[in-house]
Amino acid sequence: MTMPAPVAATPSAQPGNWVDPYRAYNFKLLINNVTEGHFTEVTGLGVKVERISYREAGNNSIVRAIPSRVTYPPVTLRFGLTNSVDLWEWLMTAVEGRVSRRNVSIVMLDAAGATEVLRWNLVNAWPQEWYGAPLDAMSRELAIETLSLAHEGLQREAGGGGPAA
């Protein structure tokens, strides 16, 4: 009787092996498969599952919890002001009451900035809030605008995921 060959563990599964975390500055934003703008910051990626507490029948001392409504906070994008009007026109559709929902992907890149390692997809996103760049004649900073996106869901994919449709 022969014994099966041992299965090789991946390096990240080995105790004591250091796995270098991804760099927060290597990312890009895709809106309907198009890389948009030069984004300096993305915040608000998250999900909240509310809980309902109830007492178990016949046992008043134990309080159980079950999941309830799921909500997604708005995702806020900060980007350098350019002469591109694409994001502004998308915002104006919401201002006019015609919401144009788009699929948005935030793509995390490797340390070299070349290969996709992780992706978050915002489902049916639309612009809900915009703030213009603070202007200061005494400053040498970049003009950074802020745009917040409402969305209906958040998906996470490992590297190499498909583009937002």
TrEMBL record:
Pfam families: Phage_T4_gp19
Cleavable signal peptide: none
Xref: InterPro entries: CHP02241 (IPR011747), Phage_T4_Gp19 (IPR010667)
Membrane-spanning parts: none
Coiled-coil regions, chain positions: none
UniProt protein name: Phage tail protein
Organism of derivation: Dactylosporangium darangshiense
Record lineage: Bacteria, Bacillati, Actinomycetota, Actinomycetes, Micromonosporales
